[in-house]
From TrEMBL:
Protein name (record): HK97 family phage prohead protease
Pfam families: Peptidase_S78
GO molecular function: peptidase activity
Stored NCBIfam families: proheadase_HK97
Example GO BP: proteolysis
Highest taxon, organism lineage: Bacteria
Keywords recorded for this protein, A-Z: Hydrolase, Protease, Viral release from host cell
All residue ranges annotated as the Prohead serine protease domain in the record: 4-148
Length: 179
């Protein structure tokens, strides 16, 4: 399959729940961190940007609807249209080519715990999410990002159109019942 020339969409996970990452090692001890399934429940995520390695110009943004963030059973899912900026188009090509295939996120913690036995910090709550980033060296190796194929993008468009049509039919039906 090939990627669409006019649709430069990428998808991935910037955070994966319950997948401990070793943040650093000291004197033979691995210090880890894991994201709890409920960490994003109260997180402020109204204006989040996407960029490369947490720096440079934004390539997508929630405020202009080029960046979509959803929390599902696996983690923080990212879907971004990178076609709007030159930096975004370059990043898309690097993701599509497999040069960049991991993600990260920048955030402020509202609540956490630490297990001295396992040397693991567990993030229970995130106060504010600042950015999601395609990265070359992630803290969490379980993350990923990939370019969507043209056929995948077309299938999603068709599914969304059908869902909208079902919703419209339901509303019309409800309006007839009310009369």
């Amino acid at each position: 399959m090939r990627a669409a020339e006019d649709e430069m969409t990428v998808e991935g996970y910037a955070a994966v729940f319950d997948a401990p990452a070793t943040l650093y090692s000291y004197e033979g001890v691995d210090y880890k961190e894991a994201i709890d399934r409920g960490a994003f429940i109260a997180a402020e995520m109204q204006d989040v940007v996407m960029n490369y390695n947490h720096g440079g110009k934004p390539v997508a943004r929630t405020k202009n609807h080029t960046l979509e963030l959803t929390v599902d059973g696996r983690g923080l899912k990212v879907r971004a249209d990178l076609s709007g900026t030159e930096e975004g188009r370059r990043l898309y090509e690097e993701i599509k080519g497999g040069y960049i295939d991991k993600m990260s996120f920048a955030f402020v913690v509202s609540e956490d715990t630490y297990d001295r036995d396992t040397h693991t910090r567990r993030i229970l709550g995130i106060k504010r999410l600042y950015d999601v980033a395609a990265v070359d060296m992630p803290a969490y190796d379980a993350t990923h990002i990939s370019a969507r194929s043209y056929f995948d993008a077309e299938a999603v468009k068709a599914e969304r159109a059908e869902a909208r049509a079902r919703k419209i039919r339901r509303i019309k039906l409800m309006m007839e019942v009310i009369r």
